[in-house]
Amino acid sequence: MSDEEWERFLRDAEAGAGSAPVEPSARARETERRLRDGAGQPEGWRTYTPASPRPRRRTGWYAAGLVAAVALLAVALFPQRIAGWFDGDGGQDAPPLAAETGRPQEAPGAEPALRATQAEPFRGSPAARWADGAAGITVPAAKATGWMDAAQVAQALGRSRDFLAAAGLDPRVLSGARPTRAITLLNPHQKDVKEYLRTALSAGTPTPETDPLLLFSRFRPEQARLVGDVVKTRGRLTYREGKRGAVEVTADVTFVYPVTPAASDGDGEVIRTIVRRQIVMSWDDPDKVVTEPGTMSLVSYALDMTNGGCDAPTGYFVPPFGTAAADDAGSTDASRRVDPYDRTAPLDSNGGTGTAGDGCATATRS
Asked: Taking the domains of the chain in order of start, what are their residue ranges?
């Protein structure tokens, strides 16, 4: 290129005219690259391309949701019946029931007609799903009541449950020993209870009014023994302010004792003695009532039992071992039929049912 041509080229380039090359912008270079590579037009920074729509199949989900809703409603309305549908072995492997926090609205549903065995003493019984021992006794939350603050109420509730355990679950007491621990929780200055204990636990023959079974669970060791070491329970404690500002605790608990003849060699008959107790305990203000620290007074106590004996009281439960137990559970009055697992109604405060002298009822199951 001559000097004249070079100078003309520079002038045209400065003026932006002629054939002088122009440096492409970055976006132009990117466009050129995309076109060359077959990538198509670039997407603008304000543009949006919606994804291709996908078909949705909701019918199956709606149907499943409807079935689940119906199932939940059925469980809420008929929990015992629903549980029975899946409880083919009489409840042995069924999940435990939730704690009882209020009076039940209906009795437990029917269980398969299966006899108890040494290996499965609660087979065929609603108690198979109950808690073991004191764990089945629900204790409510404590709040200040009467003369006690919340911490004192909690202590009173704990000691109330301790009394039930000492009177109805202690293995020594169940074998006929003196209920020493339970007695230490009773107000020693309550004269009528003191006299009851003296007479009930003496060597003499008790009367219906002095029967130790009204408060304590006992089997004659030469006649019956517990199968295994588990007693099933279900019940609860409630409380309120009582007389003179006392904290009045009411216990309503059912105990299920699987027992076999004392001479059984491990394959003998198993009978369940079912005992429901309703005990009202008063934790009194020591400034208003003569009492001792850590003890309570008894206001009332009632008992209902099945397979515990229906003759004159002996001071011990008497399971009706033999064929008679399978026929009528030792009852004497077929016109009175009771379900020992039905906890929907309170016990008669005059002594409950099933005690000697009032015509024992016929148990519908055990």
From this structure: 114-363
